[in-house]
Amino acid sequence: MLAKCLVHKFSLQKNSISSETNEFECHCTASVNLGTRKPIGKIKVVILSLHRVITLSDNLLQVLNSDNLQFISNIKLKNIITFAVSNQFKQGASIDMCVSTKRNKLQIYRLDRMNINLIYEISVHDPLISIGIDECGILACSKTAYFAYRPTINNDRRSTGSLQTIFTLHDPSIVACFTFIKPGEYLLSGPNIGITTTLEGTSQRTPIMFISQPNDFIYSHPYLLVRVKDYIHIYSYLDDQLKQEIPLKNCQTLINIPEGNINNILINTKDNIYLLESLSIQEQIDQLLNTYRLQEALILAENNFSSIEKHNTNSLILSTKKRVGFIEFNSMNVIRALHLFDDIDLDFHEIILQIPNFLPLNSPWPDFDENIKSRYILWLNAFCDYMTKRSEEFSRQSDYYSSLLKAYLIIKSRETIIEFLEKYASYIPIDFHNLLFHIRLYHGAAILYSAHGKHEQTIDIWKNVELNLDRSLEFSVGKWLLEQHEEELATKIFISKYQNESNRDPFNSNKVTHLLKPYPTALRNYLEQGVFKLMIETDEIHTMLVNIYLDQILSKSSDDNEQTRTKLQEFLVKSNFYRVQSVLNRINQTKRFKRELALLYGKMNNFEQTFQILVNELEDFQYAENYCVALSYDKSSDDRKIVAHALFNAFLASLDKHPNEITAALLHLLCNNEVEFDFIEILKRLPSQWSISSLKDILLRATRTYSYIKRSTKLEIALDRIQNEKLNIKLRKLKRSNVIINEYRRCKNCLKQFYEASCIVYQDGSQVHVHCAKQLN
Predict the structure, then answer these.
(1) Domain ranges within the chain, ordered by starting residue
(2) What is the pTM of this model?
(3) CHCR repeats: which residues (predicted)?
């Protein structure tokens, strides 16, 4: 019976009709019978120069012409287990091929168009089930070990050395396999890991941790495709992470098919052949950037090109860095963004396009709230740093100084802007005077006019400026008095001239406190008067005063700071504007401020902790009651009860510790008319051993309280009933009265006629359209 082991040659064309499934139309263009009895174990197509197909079936290696599948005569090798073909051609259109034989030999041949010649052979101990060859050497594996061989030049074609064992598998369940990463670098399969190695057995890379034990894998830059049971796992070789999982049962082989810059993978199962098409590098980068995986996108772009020199010129790398830089910039990671901008020599105009409201340059900035302004300050500081760093390059462009001026208006002081204009005003167009007038920087506008020879306009500006210099002069006088150590007189000027917290006012509290920082006594006096006299209600001022009190207390002995400490405690109770968490963090650094700690917990509505400190630790029962009254101020009835019950619970918890003192404190608290209780709840929890006579005042207050509540409720209901009755009378009058609407009647609001039957009638009897009434109200 004639054996049939066939090789078919197909031409593939994607089916344009079935676009959803991406099926291919296959046309058989040639076939040949190899004449062997067993299926083909391995087939390799060598197109370039040779145009050959190498087949292995029934341990017989044969070579065919890839164009017509005709046998190449006299090229047959028997007893072959497996083979591999080098990816590098030799001179004269030849290529090296290594084979593993049943006789435990590793043979290296040189194959050309018509002949195959043995170059040398090596004896091995165990049959080699897989081998690979590249320009650096040979890698092979048996069922239990991996071997490497680096060929040497020797005229003797027989044993010219031995294989070096580089890794041994001790678990027989692990399938030995390997793949080429790049010339001289290979990946071996180990126990749930992938081990990178060279032919010398060294590795400069940590192993890849696999989720499942591989049956086979191949490398397709920059991904590793791993065949496991019923799945194809795709790992990134750049970060060793699993990126995709493709369910596929009965997968048998993975074959890499290079096509231009894209590596497609041919996968065959028992019944089908699949082509796994890789997305282009650009599409992969787009997906990574869209999901904010910026570092992965950069690594992918840079690793797509092996030459370091190309990194500074390759358009894909440059565009990826630019896009990552813009994303980082808009995410406020400006340091990282500037590094990328500098790396690709980005023109500053492209950064300007990323900052809203920067263009046009001669238009003023809009008014920002504090959150938005902080974002702009970060952006513009980064922009100016980049401009300054590359000033030698950028300053040749006509709008360089104009762009800097636009940024300086947000981030620099008025003095710095004036200094900048004095140097570079001649490089800035005169129409930028609108920006300077907008922020009332008249001095700067005059400098700009003067630099462009507009002397009449300069003089007019100075005349107007002179009329508005009074407050600036007064501030300068106060500053001069400080320098003359007349701190008390300077403080009086700053207090008397205060108007508001506008940034344009020289006497706003931020500017004054910044000026007074070198003068501690003057600063304290200004803050105390600013808080208690001027009623400045900013968290910065109130927090600064608290910190000054703390500094003074910590710098003195406990006997010298009693007055300051009393001021601090009163301020912590009365003020609602200091940063509680900031003060709490500082007070927690020492154990001297237990009372102050209790006051801060009260500000944070942590009443249990507050009264635990005051009652249990400090045992100051009267102070606890007074603070309970202070905390209840300006709160709702329910909130006042929460505060009072928290102190009541603290007293009850300490009753056994100080029975007499706590009993007196409880009786005094419950009789305090400034503290509000739910007496039904309170009476249930009072100690049972207390006598009726001791509870007389409490019961009397409870009775009066609930009687008052009952009378107030009845009164409110009666007033509501009267109001409801009045409204009902008005409603009935309106329903009884007739309103005549005709073509002579006009709407009181729009003076137009009524064309519908409905209208609104006001108390004075006038009528308006329904839609007009809605607009008015």
Answers:
(1) 288-346, 350-453
(2) 0.50
(3) 482-656
